[in-house]
Amino acid sequence: MPSVNIPLFSAHKANDSLDFVTPIKKVLESHWYILGAEVKAFEAEFAEYTGVKHCISVANGSEALELALLGLGVKQNDYVVAVANAGFYGSTAIHAVGAKPLYVDIANDTLTMCPVALKASLDLKPSAIIVTHLYGQLANIEEIVSIASAAGIPVLEDCAQSHGASRNGKLAGSFGTIACFSFYPTKNLGALGDGGAIVTNHVEVAEKVLQLRQYGWSKKYHVEVPNGRNSRLDEMQAAILRVKLPHLDTWNAQRRSIAQRYNNAFAHLDMQLPHSINEDFVAHLYVVRVKNRDDFAQYMSSHQISTDIHYPVADHMQPAYNSSKSKSMSLSQTEEACQSVISLPCFPGLPDEDVQRVIDAVVKYFSEGK
Ligand SMILES: *Cc1c(COP(=O)(O)O)cnc(C)c1O
Fold it and tell me: For the chain, which residues make up each domain, given as ranges?
C-alpha cells in the first residue's frame, strides 16, 4: 500500500528550481515596494503575453472582478449575468458593487456558460456578462461575445483559472471587453502571495480602473472616481511573477499532458471527462463527473489520493444571499454538475509515478464494479 499522500497541488513541486532570491533581493535593494519598476514591467509583459493593450495589476482576483465591473459602469440594482457553478467569485463581485446576479445555465459538456441560456436571459437587460473559463477550459467565448455585442452588453472574462488558454491563437482575456486574472499561489500563474490583474483594449476603461485601484485618484489626493480603494500588486510579487511568466506555457503543457494521460486511461470508464485537451484547455483543475461521488472520494482517500469538489454549492443555493438579491433562469445542468464533479491531482511537477498511481486507483475502483 503506498503511504505518501498525493496532494491536489504542491507549491513546492510547482515552484521547484526557480530562483526567487535574486528578484526579491533586487526589490530589497531598490527600497521601493509599491507601484515601481517591477509592477510596470510585469504589466507590460503580461499585456503582451495576453495580446491585450492595457494591463492594470491589482491586489487579488476578487478585487479585479469588482473593479472591472465598476470600470464597465455597472451600477446598483443592475443585473449582471453569471454562471452559478464557478465558486461564487463573480457573485461576490456583483454583490459588492450593489448589482444583482442573473444566473444562467451551463453547457453539459464544457461546464461553462451555455450561449442559448445566455440569449434567453437578455430580456432582463443585464448591464454586463461575466464568463468564467472554468477549470482552465475556454468557454464558448466567440459565440457569447457575438451574442453580447449584438445586444450591446460588455463581456467580462474571468480568467483566474485559464492563464494562457487559447483558441486559434487568441488568448483567454483577449476576447471580451475586459478580463480578470488571479495570481493566487495555486493558479496556473501564481505569485508567492496574493495578486491579480485586469486587462482590456479599451483605453477609457483602463484609465478608470487605474484610478479605482488607487483611491479613485486622478492625481495625488484628487479623488475623481467614486468607489476607489487601495488594490495594488506589490513590487515583490510583481518581480516573482516576472520570473514565472516565461514558464507559463511549459507548465500549461505539463498540466495538459497529465490530463491527456488521464483521459486516455479513463476513456472506457463510466465517468464524464474534461471536454478538451487542446490549447483551449490549460487543466487548471482535472475535473471528472461520477455517479457515486462520496463513494469515489472515499475510495481515493483510502488510496492516499487527494480529491476536492469544485464547487459543492451552486451560487444560487448559498445561504448568505437570499433569492430576492438574485434571479435565476433554469439551472438544471448546473445543479446536476454540482452533485457529480470531483477534482483529481493535476499540477506541474506531479511525478509520473503519482499520475500512474491515480490512474491505477481510478481503474481499480471501476473494475470492482462500483
Ligand atoms: C481564484 C479565483 C478567483 C479569485 O481570485 P483571488 O485572487 O483568490 O481573489 C476568481 N475567480 C475564479 C474563477 C477563481 O478561480
Answer: 12-246, 248-367
20 backbone dihedrals φ, ψ, rounded to 5°: -100, -15
Fold for 12-246, please state it: Aspartate Aminotransferase; domain 2 (3.40.640)
Is the pTM value of this prediction over 0.90?
yes
Distance, in Å, from the CA atom of 217 to the CA atom of 236, rounded to the nearest integer, reads 24
The confidence band for 149, taking pLDDT boundaries of 50, 70 and 90, is very high
Which atom of ligand 1 is found nearest the CA of 187?
Answer: 1
Strand pairing report for 196-200 and 178-182: antiparallel
* CA-nearest residue, atom 3 of ligand 1: 61
Task: Assign domain 248-367 to a CATH class.
Answer: alpha beta
Ligand 1 atom at minimum distance from 184 CA: 7
Phi and psi dihedrals of 136, rounded to 5? 100, 5
Q: How far is the CA of 353 from the centre of ligand 1 (A)?
A: 30
